[in-house]
């Protein structure tokens, strides 16, 4: 007969995972999962911030583009050589209709509004049933474009908000510079002068509830129609 004592001596017992080992494993898994979750949340926040910054840049660039594209036309006049008035009598460059920098009201920054005119329908006449007096202004944290009105200034008239929802405009500044072309030495009050004009636009804003992510854009544009007067 086989010796049972020999078999019993060779028999081994397998042990399972203890409760302490199980708890340690769970704790390590929770720590790793928490770290991965924190990293994912951080990446998500960075991605969201980047998207918000991109959107803000896009909004401000779009506003700048609209303003620059239209302001470049300031002073255009559909004058023809057979006209009975001279070039120096351009109605779109008269004192009341030429480029004027002001502000909407005393609550807005200085030089945050610009008005100008041009011959939109190329008939050589100012107005005549057409809106040919334009402007842009900062008003109540939004950029507004002039669409009409009887009085032509920054304080009255019809203005339309062109700012995207959720974008807060904090600053708008216009700076106009002129350089005499003829005569090159400079103009005197008695002379007829041709003046090239350069407009600098500074626009600042942020997304709603994100004032710490403010963005400022600056642009210089050449007014296509030189001032003659």
How would you describe the overall organization of this protein?
The protein is elongated. The chain has one domain (49-228). Helices cover 26% and strands 28% of the residues. The longest helix has 53 residues, at 19-71. A hairpin with a 7-residue loop joins strand 7 (194-207) and strand 8. It is α+β, with helices and mostly antiparallel strands and 229 residues long. The chain has helices spanning 4-10, 19-71; strands at residues 100-102, 113-117, 133-138, 143-148, 158-161, 167-182, 194-207, 215-222, 227-228. Strands 1-2-3-4-5 form a 5-stranded antiparallel beta sheet, covered by helices on one side. Strands 6, 7, 8 and 9 form a 4-stranded antiparallel beta sheet that branches. It is built from 2 helices and 9 strands.
């Amino acid at each position: 007969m086989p010796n049972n004592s020999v078999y019993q001596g060779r028999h081994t017992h397998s042990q399972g995972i203890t409760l302490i080992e199980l708890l340690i494993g769970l704790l390590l898994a929770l720590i790793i999962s928490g770290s991965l979750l924190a990293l994912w949340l951080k990446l998500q926040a960075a991605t969201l911030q980047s998207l918000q910054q991109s959107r803000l840049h896009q909004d401000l660039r779009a506003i700048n583009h609209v303003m620059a594209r239209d302001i470049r036309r300031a002073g255009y006049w559909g004058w023809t050589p057979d006209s009975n008035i001279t070039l120096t009598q351009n109605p779109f460059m008269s004192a009341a209709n030429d480029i004027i920098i002001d502000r909407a009201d005393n609550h807005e920054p200085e030089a945050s509004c610009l008005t100008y005119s041009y011959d939109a329908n190329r008939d050589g006449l100012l107005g005549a049933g057409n809106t040919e007096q334009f402007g842009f202004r900062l008003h109540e944290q939004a950029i507004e474009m002039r669409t009409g009105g009887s009085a032509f200034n920054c304080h009255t008239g019809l203005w339309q908000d062109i700012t995207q929802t959720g974008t807060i405009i904090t600053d708008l500044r216009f700076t106009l510079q002129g350089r005499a072309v003829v005569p090159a030495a400079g103009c005197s009050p008695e002379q007829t002068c041709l003046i090239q004009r350069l407009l600098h636009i500074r626009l600042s804003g942020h997304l709603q509830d994100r004032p710490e992510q403010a963005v400022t854009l600056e642009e210089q544009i050449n007014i296509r129609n030189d001032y003659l007067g």
